[in-house]
Write a structure and sequence with these properties.
Length: 284
């Protein structure tokens, strides 16, 4: 990857690599990636299983670790590339002690934002695959962000309260700074479907949704009652849930990334194969 600012030239290249998404005549799905502390390997392996089965991904919703993985995926990175990018350096190397205001969060995410600006386009609107992410505002209310500055929104979705300082999203003058949406809704299925309903799916037929849900790492995380979320959004189009265990990772380094990637790929693949008929209901 280039060390410079993300460019439209990079967008063209990554879109070519990512040509298996939004492909005419193949089954179409949306994917929802839950929060899960540093669960990048499992999310990447899950997306690899989706790719292996030739499913066309039309849209993605992510929260916390799911926001980072989903944003890169939506920008055109193939799952195997996600594994490389997300494990290239220890997460701690992107952080700085928030010495001026430790009460607001132990670490600042400035270094992470700088790296995201290299890896991602500047705005949601430039992504080749539709993407949205979940954050909470300064009053603790869940907010779906689907337009405007992208790197800052992704960083905000990862800003676990107390551990990371909340993040200002440029252009959002009311409600900020913003933090990890997983503090209210770990999964994101309901806000994703609400977003789609609000704009009439942009004129496209509704697609099945595959949710990848990581086991919670903290008892203080938000709602992850997937059964209740499915009841709330309905079963048409279908909702398929794939679960993975918590990552067990730390900020000092992402260990056993490849084994976790492969385990998630195999687990998701078996579930996707069993649900093949449900996932072939909608074509582009």
């Amino acid at each position: 990857m280039s060390s410079g600012r993300y460019s439209r030239q990079q967008t063209s290249a990554t879109t070519t690599r990512h040509a298996w998404t939004a492909t005419s005549g193949v089954p179409t799905v949306d994917v929802v990636l839950s929060s899960g502390f540093l669960a990048f390997a499992a999310h990447s392996g899950f997306l690899q299983a989706v790719h292996d089965r030739g499913l066309s991904v039309r849209g993605c919703y992510g929260t916390s670790a799911g926001a980072l993985t989903g944003a890169l995926f939506s920008a055109g990175y193939a799952p195997s590339e996600l594994a490389v990018v997300l494990s290239e350096r220890p997460p701690l190397s992107y952080l700085a002690f928030n010495v001026e205001a430790l009460y607001a969060g132990l670490f600042r995410l400035d270094g992470a934002i700088a790296r995201l600006r290299q890896l991602l386009p500047a705005t949601f609107e430039e992504l080749p695959v539709r993407f949205a992410c979940g954050v909470i505002d300064a009053q603790g209310r869940h907010v779906t962000v689907s337009s405007g500055p992208l790197p800052e929104a992704v960083a905000a979705s990862m800003a676990i309260p107390c551990l990371f300082a909340a993040v200002d999203i440029p252009g959002r003058l009311v409600g900020g700074p913003y933090a990890d949406g997983g503090q209210v809704d770990r999964v994101g299925l309901r806000p994703w479907r609400q977003l789609l309903e609000s704009d009439g799916h942009r004129g496209d037929p509704a697609a099945p949704t595959i949710c990848h849900v990581i086991e919670r790492s903290s008892p203080f995380s938000g709602d992850d009652d997937v059964a209740a979320a499915v009841r709330a959004v309905g079963t048409q189009p279908p909702v398929l849930v794939v679960r993975s265990p918590k990552s067990g990772q730390s900020l000092t380094g992402l260990r056993e990334f490849e084994p976790q990637f492969e385990t998630a790929r195999q687990r998701a693949g078996a579930i996707l194969d069993a649900a093949r008929e449900e996932l072939t209901l909608v074509g582009v």
